[in-house]
Amino acid sequence: MITDADAWRSRDLAVLWHPCTQMREHPDVLPLVPIERGDGAWLIGRDGRRYLDAVSSWWTNLFGHAEPRIAAAIAGQARTLEHVLLAGFSHQPAVELAEKLLAIAPRQCDRAPLTKVFYADNGSAGVEVALKMAFHWFRNRGEDHRTRFVALENGYHGETLGAMAVGDIPLYRRTYAPLLAEVLFAPSPDAYLAAPGQSPAQRALQAADELATIFDRHPGEVCAVILEPLVQCAGGMRMHHPEYLKRVRQLCDAHGVFLIADEIAVGFGRTGTFFACEQAGIAPDLLCLSKGLTGGFLPLAAVLTTQELYDGFLDDSRERAFLHSHSYTGNPLACAAALATLRIFDEDDVLARNKVTAARMAQLAAPLAQHPHVADVRQTGMIVAFELMRDGDKHTPFDPALRVGLRAYRAALERGVVLRPLGDVLYWMPPYCIDEEQLALLADVTRTAIDEATCA
Ligand code: PMP
Questions:
Q1: Residue whose CA is closest, atom 9 of ligand 1?
Q2: Comparing C-alpha atoms, which of 120, 38, 426 is closest to residue 293?
Q3: Which of 182, 189, 280, 312 has the fewest beta carbons under 10 Å from its own?
């Protein structure tokens, strides 16, 4: 008998090309799950099955699916003004959101605050904006030789050509290398890479020293450093010590280079503080935000920057203006969703509640560190990751042909939990509304999924 879900699966596969997917694997290797609706941390399939969204739908969702206050804000805005071009025109949600973001942006006592917001409509586009702004600022000053970006090994910043150029995911770099701008890559401060006996802080300082040598070797060539503060998410939830960010901030200042903090994945409370930069007490020159910005409801990105950078574009010439425009820049519906999101942080005292949830996640994750094929369990705030390695040896990955990550994914999905691994790294990055029962299910299913995936 053909079920309703089966019918949707074949209609889908007849017309859709899915992201980040070898389509040949659908549906036999990789199940396709038609979803009808969301409810809190649950996704509900067309066949009525429930799936715990432990990855917050690619790290976008903050307070659960179909959160009524965000839904109401979007609906109200849609009845008033759905969209207007933002060149030459203005609207209340865009202005109010910019004011609020600037008020909560990371601050550093010895620096001027971030004072300007530029909108884009997805994370990659936000990264493009930040890269272009940094480059163009120097060009406007006649420093044409400052054309290079420094990015971190194992970093990820999106999939448009500029964003991909500053990313270091081997598969992407191999495939698209001829199209990508040449970037200087600095070693990652990743604590997992620490030598035996080296602390995460020592590893961070070592990586910062290595960055310093890159500056020394390329004097006057670099316009910006871009990094993901505290957690390299797509790179396998690799985490580093905040000391690294402090040192990078100092090095950028010493060499007159902009620091771009990509908080697209780690912003909005994921790391425990509202922004990850706060844990190092630093402020960047450019701050990229997206994903959780709208609570996971609509695509929107914001790039926050300084008065000094903004002023570098003021001139009589059009060429010196910042040359960037997306049709949906500052979309009112997305801004309304973001404003509702920020209100919920206050109304529900989200960061305080997350502290309790994160502590519970730590308790539930700890026993998995004893699993024979888990080499590392790490946590930063509301992100927990499990590194699966053969016999738990940090340096012995499973044979990729075994597809351990995919097997874990399928095992978890069959048990009603969405655990979409990054290679062989399983992680929890759940919506903040996840409750005790759901956390217990998550921990239980994670153990079973690891058992099943690693038993070969
Ligand atoms: N930067 C980081 C740190 C990200 O994690 C992502 C998305 N995973 C992006 C940029 C790109 O965002 P988007 O997918 O919205 O283009």
A1: 158
A2: 120
A3: 182
What percent of the chain shows pLDDT beyond 90? Answer: 97
What is the domain extent for residue 242? 75-348
Rg (CA), the chain: 22
Is the shortest distance between the CB of 56 and ligand 1 below 6 Å? no
pLDDT at 238: 98
User: In the structure encoding, which two tokens stand for residue 439, read together?
Assistant: 């956390």
Residue 86 near residue 98 (C-beta atoms within 8 A): no
CA 455 to ligand 1 centroid distance, Å = 33
Protein residue closest via CA to atom 2 of ligand 1: 157
CA torsion through residues 246, 379, 238, 348, sign: negative
- Domain boundary among the residues 331, 348, 365 is at 348
Q: Which tens digits make up the pLDDT trace of 248-288?
A: 999 999 999 999 999 999 999 999 999 999 999 999 999 99
Q: Both 180 and 198 in a single domain?
A: yes
Residue 420 gets which letter from DSSP? -
Same domain as 249, residue 142: yes
For residues 220 and 203, the answer to whether their CB atoms sit within 8 Å is no
Q: In the predicted model, what is the mean pLDDT of the chain?
A: 97
Q: Report how far ligand 1's centroid is from the alpha carbon of 2 (Å).
A: 37
Ligand 1 atom showing the smallest separation from residue 299 Cα: 15
Same domain, 62 and 82: no
Q: Is 229 in the pocket of ligand 1 (CB under 6 A)?
A: no
CATH number at residue 114: 3.40.640.10
Question: pLDDT digits over 94-152, tens only?
Answer: 999 999 999 999 999 999 999 999 999 999 999 999 999 999 999 999 999 999 999 99
pLDDT at 456: 66
The SS3 call for residue 213 is helix
CA of 61 to the centre of ligand 1 (A): 13
211 and 172 in a common domain: yes
Mean local confidence (pLDDT), 397-413: 97
Q: How many angstroms does the Cα of residue 264 sit away from the middle of ligand 1?
A: 6
Q: Which of 269, 265, 268, 264 is nearest to 287 (CA)?
A: 264
- Do residues 97 and 206 both lie within one domain? yes
Asked if 281 and 222 sit in the same domain, the reply is yes
Q: Is 383 in the pocket of ligand 1 (CB under 6 A)?
A: no
Q: Check pocket membership of 230 for ligand 1, CB cut-off 6 A.
A: no
- Domain end among 313, 348, 383: 348
Q: How confident is the model at residue 1 (pLDDT cuts 50, 70, 90)?
A: confident
